From TrEMBL:
Coiled coil: none
The protein's name: LUD domain-containing protein
One Pfam short name: LUD_dom
Taxonomic lineage from the root: Bacteria, Bacillati, Bacillota, Clostridia, Eubacteriales
LUD domain span: 14-206
Database matches in PANTHER family: LUD DOMAIN-CONTAINING PROTEIN, LUD_DOM DOMAIN-CONTAINING PROTEIN
Organism per entry: Clostridium beijerinckii (Clostridium MP)
Superkingdom to which the source organism belongs: Bacteria
Amino acid sequence: MNENKKWQYRCLAKEAVDILGDNHYDAHYAENLQEAKDMVLGMITEGASVALGGSITIEEMGLLKIFREGNYKLFDRYQKLPHDEIIEIQRQSLLADFLITGTNAITRNGELVNMDCSGNRVSGMIFGPKRVIVVASASKLVDDVEAAIKRIKSIAPLNSRRIGHETPCVRTGKCMDCNVKKRICNYLTVINHGWKFDGRISIIVIADEAGF
Ligand code: SF4
């Protein structure tokens, strides 16, 4: 990465960590994806049950392979199974020891803003798994919820294309505010702060590009 751009990512990541720490999340700075990956693995105890939220950043870290092959109980929703069996795994994963996930946006008010298709990721972030580990690039930092929604809408076509949904945005590259069954924008959530359960939500902010 260009040195000037890297400098800006570092500034944004430090700013995000300060904001999140002030809002009672367990916030951490990571210089790059590898450092973030090491931090995630350092937080998870061997033998623990683990669920993964849909996230490009997590894919880029190769965590699926690690949790499949390591001494963990993975709620593996990425298996080739009938849809109703995948939904059952997603239901069970709400009781995981750890949920590892990305976030669509972090606001300068300390909010985590997300849009889900099925709702399993955002529901687990809010309640269920004992610990939540959020991994996000500093590029997710935006001013407020309004800016977060704008960001979410700009990346939703990429996510829809990634998961193979035939939504209008996949044809045009921009949100068409569709009204189709395959719509991926179904559950918009705002987590306001990390006050409720001390240390439950850890957030690792990466001073680098990662995910969408
Ligand atoms: S509302 Fe529909 S068109 Fe807009 S981003 Fe979501 S899935 Fe795509």
